[in-house]
Amino acid sequence: MEQLIEDIVQSVRPDQRTLIAISGHGAAGKSTLAEKLRERLGDINLLHTDPYITDSQLRKQTILTYQHDGTTHQYKMTACHPAAHHLLSLERDVRMIREGIGFYTIDVPYLERTWIDPEKPITIIEGMSVAFLDLSSFDQSIYLYTDGETEFKRRSHRDIQERGMELDYLHASHVERRLQYELFMHPYRHYFQTIVNTSKDEIQIEKTAHEER
Fold first, then answer.
1. pTM for the predicted model, two decimal places
2. Tens of pLDDT along 7-55?
3. Per the database record, which ranges form the Phosphoribulokinase/uridine kinase domain (predicted)?
4. How far does the chain reach from its first CA to its final CA, in angstroms?
């Protein structure tokens, strides 16, 4: 991961407006990468996209039907589905950043609003919603993912310890969430310049921006 961070840092020109996209499923390492880049790049904008995800109560009432290995599944819409995101709002805000227009991020109970400063040339936009955007607006794009076992291990540690979820419920929801991820979100990774597999806490770079040149 350190080499990836170094490559990104070296490619950024502080005198030019630069937008960096980071996406992937939950617990893939998005926030960790974004924070490490912010430490290296200094005083930059960081836009977390969780507030652009549709309210969980609405998603619970939206039941999806999908096929996997010949079996029909029905389950509530998770954030792995493109329709679970306010993409038009996020696209507008990305465009504002590109054009040098400042704004406050969405104010939600779990994330205090911040000012996206047009005087800061570097902005990182991080979160699941980014996967479903047109990436041509970004100068760098990185996608992270893990296998299902690693995702569940990381989710269970976070959701049980920090959010008080029951293990049985978490496991049942994880199976369907992972199926929706594989069907609806994972294919979007190919649009990113860099793809990183962080399964089993190992870093495997499957594609780099250099390969696209």
1. 0.92
2. 999 999 888 999 999 999 999 999 999 999 999 999 999 999 999 999 9
3. 19-198
4. 21
Query: Model confidence over 117-163: pLDDT tens digits?
Result: 999 999 999 999 999 999 999 999 999 999 999 998 887 766 655 55
Q: Are 78 and 180 in contact (CB under 8 A)?
A: yes
Domains in the chain: ranges and CATH: 2-212 (3.40.50.300)
Give the per-residue SS3 of the chain.
CHHHHHHHHHHCCCCCCEEEEEEECCCCCHHHHHHHHHHHHCCCEEEECHHHECCHHHHHCCEEEEEECCEEEEEECCCCCHHHECHHHHHHHHHHHHCCCCEECCCECCECCCEECCCCCEEEEECHHHHHCCHHHCCEEEEEECCHHHHHHHHHHHHHHHHCCCHHHHHHHHHHHHHHHHHHHHHHHHHCCEEEECHHHCCEEEECHHHHC
As given in the structure block, the two tokens for residue 83 are 């329709």
